[in-house]
Amino acid sequence: MRTIVAAYQMIMPGEWARAHRHTPNALRLILDAEPGTYTTVDGIDIAMEPGDVLLTPNWSTHGHGNDSKACAYWLDFLDAPLVQLLEPMFFEPQDEDKNHAAFEQERAAPTTDSPFVFTLAETMRRLEAAVADPAGPFATSVELGNPALDTIALHMMKLAPGRRTAEHRSTANNIYAVVCGRGVTNVDGEAFDWVRGDVIAAPAWRPHFHEAADDALLLRVTDEPVLQKLGFYRIES
User: Fold this and answer.
1) Considering only CA atoms, which of 205, 191, 199 is closest in space to residue 236?
2) 167: Cβ contacts below 8 Å, ≥ 6 apart
3) Within 13 Å of residue 232, how many CA atoms lie on the same side as its CB?
4) How far apart are CA 145 and CA 147, in angstroms?
5) In this structure, which long-range contacts are made by residues 10-13, counting pairs with CB atoms below 8 Å and at least 24 apart in sequence?
6) What does the H/E/C string look like for the chain?
7) Checking DSSP bridges between strand 208-212 and strand 153-159, what pairing results, if any?
8) This model's pTM is above 0.85
9) Residue 104: what pLDDT?
10) Which of 57, 79, 145, 184 could be 151's S-S partner, Cβ–Cβ 3.0 to 4.6 Å?
11) What is the pLDDT of residues 59-104, one digit of tens each?
């Protein structure tokens, strides 16, 4: 897409992804992670647990570590294409002259008490309290943040089995990541089957709808904030 990119990342046991910062906004949806896997954002270690969504806003220093005995996997989303188009692209590695192993011994235990994380448990609590709309264009959904990042909005969607959502299209780009469940998404007349961990792209002004085969959760990642700020956002359903 011209504004958002999605990519898979793996970190092996004992690995440390060097801390850095960059102008693109970023977030990650955790797919698989054992206790001891974390992201450090502005000096705070945030636990990475399956289904959680972690933010690393523009110019926030961040790195990743895995002290568990299993590989961890997540989905990264960044507005790098938009930043590249506008040209304020900057990247800066953190100076890590001090011994990292010694630094590790001084760290506090990773936490989920941070404005940079939306835990799956809290998101599920909010979905249970939300007004059910299984046939709506976005199914039953809650927004994570308001918006989560300056250029990216996040919505967790709960799909009921056997219920097709209303077809819609908008001037925004949408990427759907499967947190759990299985089903099919139809984009511009073409059907795409999906299961947990898959990604489906619905570019701007492409009509699309979803139908789950069982209870499912989809994370919707969209550039709606950009279109809204510029006065270009339009939806048709």
Assistant:
1) 205
2) 137, 186, 207, 208, 209, 237
3) 11
4) 5
5) 10/71, 10/72, 10/73, 11/37, 11/64, 11/65, 11/66, 11/71, 11/72, 12/66, 12/71, 13/66, 13/67, 13/68, 13/69, 13/70, 13/71
6) CCCCEEEEEEECCCCEEEEEEECCCEEEEEEECCCCEEEEECCEEEECCCCCEEEECCCCCEEEEECCCCCEEEEEEECHHHHHHHCCCCEEECCCCCCHHHHHHCCCCCECCCCCEECHHHHHHHHHHCCCCCCCCCCEEEEECCCCCCCCEEEEEEECECCECCCEEECCCEEEEEEECCEEEEECCEEEEECCCCEEEECCCCCEEEEECCCEEEEEEECHHHHHHHCCCCEEC
7) unpaired
8) yes
9) 55
10) 79
11) 999 999 999 999 999 999 999 999 999 999 999 999 864 445 444 5
Residue type, 96: E
User: Stretch 163-185: mean pLDDT, rounded?
Assistant: 98
142 close to 175: Cβ distance less than 8 angstroms: no
The predicted-structure confidence for 196-230, as pLDDT tens digits, reads as follows 999 999 999 999 999 999 999 999 999 999 999 99
The residues pairing with 44 across neighbouring beta strands, listed in sequence order, are 41
Q: Which two tokens stand for residue 209?
A: 């709808």
pLDDT digits 0-9 by tens, 13-24: 999 999 999 999
